[in-house]
Amino acid sequence: MEQELISKKELLQRYGISYGALYRWKRKGLIPEEWFIKKATVTGQETFFPKKLICQRVELIQDQKEETPLDELSKRFHKENEAMLIVKTVIGEKSFLCSEIEEIYFVNSNGERKRIRLEGGCENE
Q1: Which of the 8 DSSP states describes residue 19?
Q2: Could you please report the per-residue DSSP string of 51-120?
Q3: Which of 18, 65, 95, 101 stands the most exposed, by the fewest C-beta atoms within 10 Å?
Q4: pLDDT tens sequence for the chain (125 residues)
């Protein structure tokens, strides 16, 4: 069964996003290149997307873009299968790709640093 597609024009109208925002998200890796499907139509060539995938992604970006920088979202989407370390605090949460982590330390009130070792996770590869 062929997947349902949505045109770029319909997508932009449906979510109230600009052409510029869509392509900025593409440049930042929030929307994969392979989702941009060029097809010939009676009016020329148009861009379409897999409807289910793009709608879910746009909704997720719109829901999270106010509290999470686009670069952070990009890291999450670009390497969805890579392990991450997430630090949650009273003011929010920050995610780190394991490939970016060199070392993790706990610093106590006396300024003493103790290296944290994670089992089966974010050690240098």
Answers
A1: H
A2: HHHHHHHHHHHHHHTTTS-HHHHHHHHHTTTS-EEEEEETTEEEEEEGGG----EEE-TT--EEE---TT
A3: 18
A4: 567 999 999 999 999 999 999 999 888 878 888 899 999 989 899 999 999 999 999 998 998 888 888 888 887 766 655 676 777 777 766 766 676 677 888 999 999 999 887 666 565 44
pTM, entire model: 0.60
Strand, coil or helix: 42: coil
Question: By CB neighbour count within 10 A (0-12 exposed, 13-18 middle, 19+ buried), where does 104 fall?
Answer: middle
| Residue 48, φ and ψ in degrees, nearest 5 | -125, 165
